[in-house]
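[User] I wish I could look at a protein chain and see how it folds. I have put the entry right below:
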Amino acid sequence: MDLLKKIFVMFAVYGTGNATCPSKFTFDSADLFATRVGQSQRLCEAANQCAQLGNNISAIVFLIGRNAPKLPVQGLEHWTGVNQLLVYRNALKTGWYDVNPNTPEYTTGSDFQWGPTQPNGEEPVTTYTQILKTYDDYPMVITSAPFPVFCEYGGPRAKTNMGIQFRSTFPVPLTNFVQSNPLFYGCFNEILPQFTPIQCAVA
């Protein structure tokens, strides 16, 4: 179970710089460089595809999240990095995180573009439906046709220490390190007789 490893990698801050858009990023606008890298039935695999692209070009690349409405494509439903993996927001519309490592403190506000009955609180991650222009909460693994994966460019990786400051209010304390909701993926009460919480997190 390497979910938490992947989440921490997605939230790691390397530094930013609004440089020229790399050639691999086909959706180029004033404030968004993005590209479609493939498709997946799993959120973690989708995020990993973006991380792999970033490794290949030595840049910060992540699964598109709150900028999904800016994509100049039509008619698709696709994975996004907006999630409640580290904090349980249930059906609350605010407080969901985005995997953009340049703004790890960002959370959704009251004006976020949820669907009419969303979020329903039963799923940990989200998809964006372009024709409806709305986000829906969604399970991390699907059995239907795979969703497209769009990655956003966040700038070149910094070569120096960014001097990140940790405060009592950030990063958010993990109050529910062990998941109690069986619909979510993570460290569950059921597996803890075999593993300690720390073993589960780093497995």
